[in-house]
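Fold it.
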Amino acid sequence: MLQVLDTGSHSAQENMVLDEKLLLEMDMNAEPILHLYQWDGPSATYGYFIDPSKYLDLNKIRQHRIAIARRPTGGGIVFHIWDLAFSFLLPSAHPRFSSNTLDNYRFVNESVQEVMKEFLHLPGPLEIIPQSVSSVAEEADSFCMARPTIYDVVYQGHKIAGAAQRRRKNGYLHQGTISLALPQMSLLSEILLSQKKVLQAMMAYSFAPLGRYWDAHVLRTMREEIQKRLADNLRSKL
């Protein structure tokens, strides 16, 4: 069984607080949860151990009204403007739970891989990479879509989905992101402190089905359809 929890649109901070609350209060014998949510406006989240001021111009972030929040998981900086973000929580008593974090990554990302393969009808295969790609630059390592890492979902070497996890005794929280459209370079050029290297890495390693030019309605419709398919796929595996 799978509980699908759609909490609607909230601020970046509220979404992250709710994810952490779900993890901390999860009963180890409860049903798995697929948490679906949206953002009140342009947003970004960053891993628990990252200092965003080292990589982002926070004054420019405020000027562009981009809400930022720390995730309860690790990983790099993710811009929630062009992606589909979701969270999945699996209680530790569930038979699909593993004490090996990478096994848990693979379990969720295999669902993402299958959903996106069926949804996109790409001419080549979507793959889950067995090892991380070498770093282009140290600064780029702190941005999720700037370097594929182990068990990410890629298409022809370009990353389409990544994630971060936090595991506790009662289960784990998996926070995933699926790239749908390429970022606006003009916006990133203003808010990134290391513009050239990070932008180069993002463009070199990111894959986005909608490309550089996209319509907000199409993006919203795509998110909704992928959410439904992801729920169905996870439900079939649990």
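The longest helix spans residues 216-237.
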